[in-house]
Write a structure and sequence with these properties.
Family: Belongs to the Rv0495c family.
Helix content: 40-55%
Distance between the termini: 12 Å
Pfam family, one: DUF3109
Radius of gyration: 17 Å
Oligomer: single chain
InterPro entries: Rv0495c
Protein name: DUF3109 family protein
Largest sheet: 4 strands, mixed
Order of helices and strands: EEHHHHEEEEEEHHEEHHHH
Organism: Bacteroides graminisolvens DSM 19988 = JCM 15093
Length: about 190
Amino acid sequence: MVQIDDVVVSLDVFREKFICNLDACKGQCCIEGDAGAPLEEEEVAELEKVLPVIWDQLSPQAREIIDRQGVCYTDQDGDLVTSIVNGKDCVFTCYDEKGCCYCAIEKAYRDGKVDFYKPVSCHLYPIRVGNYGPYKAVNYHRWDVCKAAVILGQKENVPVYKFLKEPLIRKFGEAWYNEMESVAEELRKSNHI
């Protein structure tokens, strides 16, 4: 692990390769798992703000869940997460004509209808950020549904931190990311990655 400011970063973030391959996985990360996507407290207001814009794109089941419990809940670990349908699907998941999952919030953002991209935990995936007292921990999360992304990342030789440059800057800032690139260069020179 390396430390950049108050953030401890797993070497896997530098070593492992990754490029999302939606053609292969069909967006399974939005519809698999045992809880919703982790949220930061300030993101709840953002989700509620975009809700009227995306409401008609959501499934009837998702709208029912949101009407009943809201856009989020506290999971069994005490974490704030997006509400889910069928015990696993994010309520903001929609499908295109090919059966591929997409995020209704991200689509509205890309269409210029909202100014919130999507929860930062979704944007950062396969990185998960943990809070440990005064430190944050940045870890690479391995999941079977992302095998195609690992294969594509290896083929194109793109490390996780480079694939996730934009969300890492969104979360930690550009100066922090520039330091991360400097650390990566030093790790390469010393044959640690």
